[in-house]
Amino acid sequence: MSGADIRKQLAVYLVMGLEPVLGRSPVELAGEALSGGVTMLQLREKNLPLSEVLETGRELRELCRKHEVPFLVNDRVDVALLLDADGVHVGQEDIPAVYARKLMGPGKIIGVSAGTPEEAEQAVRDGADYLGVGSIYATSSKADAGEAIGTALISEIKERWNVPQVAIGGITAANAGPVIQAGADGVAVISAITRSTDPREAAAILKKSVMSA
Amino acid sequence: MSGADIRKQLAVYLVMGLEPVLGRSPVELAGEALSGGVTMLQLREKNLPLSEVLETGRELRELCRKHEVPFLVNDRVDVALLLDADGVHVGQEDIPAVYARKLMGPGKIIGVSAGTPEEAEQAVRDGADYLGVGSIYATSSKADAGEAIGTALISEIKERWNVPQVAIGGITAANAGPVIQAGADGVAVISAITRSTDPREAAAILKKSVMSA
User: Which residues of A are tagged catalytic?
Assistant: First the structure.
């Protein structure tokens, strides 16, 4: 995965679970979002039985392949391996990036959440392919997301390490501009797409606001 | 792993987390329990950061090797792989046994929890090396353990599949006899050892009551 490739792929990064949202199944939702221009997709499911995660995850992976969009799994490296995912995204409490890399192999994408300069530095040292930086704004999608940190860390990371980074936390088409201008390569969203009445259009509008920023 | 070996190894099976219990560190506790005669050890930690699980897990694995006792990891196949564990134990909501086998390889132990004949049948079909059958008695160690089922399922499993099985749930030296007489190869315990004032003696007494049943 070259640095240039991954920066483009981070533009509009959809993080989603497998519970139906607004009556839409995860496969329907992902299909709509990918058609709208989502450039990377992460499966983040903490509650459902893993048999179901593996079954539906396989469908999402196939959809992503069809759209030539990387498919990542949150936290569970074992699930990522079984789904032949393109990578794994780990938080600060998950398997450290160096070990995730060891299991996944050199060709896969390893993303790491960072909310402080120290966490960013460690992730860079551990060989993360990109950082998920946040929470930028206040968010209701993730109970343990921590306090909003604004865009300062994005600029700092850009300046100090210039590692690919995607901003996450409360981002919408209306407030995506400042995070891109601060140095993020893209935005990661949950509800801005999953809770939209038209996920395809929501993805398209987000992409537009990222591209024009 | 031959069937005869694993039946012996199931005799006194300690399931433990990594939080200190009664002021004892997990490594101290495991050391005492292994000296007292524990024959298999499972690391089951759901709350701590995985960096810590990997670090302390490595110490537990080394201890188990020194005592020539199999070391298993609960649920997380990725953690089991990173710790080079001897196997993995999966519950009904975890990665299905066939997939756990696929990741772990043929030489490793795959244990599966079963609380009904249907779950036992599926686990046998999936190639489980042993079943963890329960909860036998009422237990306070595991919030999601379900209702106590008594020993009838043990007898049924013994008769229908004769697969190695360890009984779990509320088992102590005082009530271990009936589960062995019903056909279990051993007993899995958490608090009977971890909450004992003398874990070494608790393990020794449990072993005696299993052996004499």
Answer: 44, 113, 142
